[in-house]
Amino acid sequence: MNEVLKTMSNHRSIRHYLKKEIPNDVLEQIIGAAQWASTSSNVQAYSIIKVKDQARKEKLAELCGNQQHVINCPVFLVFCGDFYRLSLAAKMENTETNFDTVEPLLVATIDAALVAQNVLLAAESCGIGGVFIGGIRNNSKEVSELLQLPDYVYPVFGMCLGYPDMKNIPEQKPRLPLQAILHEEIYQTENQEKYIEEYNEVMKNYYETRSTGKRSETWTENVSKIYQAPRRLHLRGFIESKRFGFK
Ligand SMILES: Cc1cc2nc3c(=O)[nH]c(=O)nc-3n(C[C@H](O)[C@H](O)[C@H](O)COP(=O)(O)O)c2cc1C
């Protein structure tokens, strides 16, 4: 395995950090490298808000559902879908813009996700760990106000970054078998249940034996609960308030 593959294959979300700053030049190197992520039509429809201020992190932690690691990490990044910059570009060119369809929302969300995964991977290659924080969408309006996000800019997820506390490194969370997610030529439904059952065994063993948060649960028991009820119903109204549409 080359170094990139090794780094990728060693990923785990890190939620416990040393009390050690990430030097600004290191962070800028990481984010600068991550910026080379591919981006739809080179629109680069994202912005990253770097938050280090303790009081602001505390407020964000609360808005993310009281996630302690948001307070404890030295750097919290908020990845936003951003068409504000494009709206400025269009103004400079005296052209109209139309953000009334689902497409720009997908474009900005995908762009934000691509750059964010690059940031995490680059950080991991520098011995820094982190975790995505989807909890940022629990209270999108309040987060948007706190970070003074303009029209056409919405938070997609946050990311805690910091040097891992080696006393608290979690075991790797196993993934589905490769064959479950990789289909040859056409979508293969035949063996999905078999792969899921195999994975249930693996995950049950992982939950039962991991060093913290031990419990007895399979993957299907865990994930089937997540989408029992509609989630984050406020998002549609919030996104509309940011002047996007759903046509
Ligand atoms: C978009 C996204 C949102 C996430 N939100 C949270 C979160 O709010 N809090 C948290 O502790 N972990 C969060 N995670 C981390 C996942 O729980 C984690 O990636 C997953 O369980 C797999 O574990 P691993 O990253 O250690 O392999 C999020 C991950 C992603 C990709």
From TrEMBL:
CDD domains the UniProt entry points to: NfsA-like (cd02146)
Domain (Nitroreductase): residue spans on this chain: 10-163
Cross-referenced Gene3D superfamilies: NADH Oxidase
EC number(s) recorded for this UniProt protein: 1.5.1.38
Molecular functions (GO terms): FMN reductase (NADPH) activity
Alphabetical keyword list: Flavoprotein, FMN, NADP, Oxidoreductase
InterPro entries noted in UniProt: Flavin_OxRdtase_Frp, Nitroreductase, Nitroreductase-like
NADP listed as a keyword: yes
Domain of life from the UniProt record: Bacteria
Family indicated by similarity: Belongs to the flavin oxidoreductase frp family.
Name of this chain's protein: Oxygen-insensitive NADPH nitroreductase
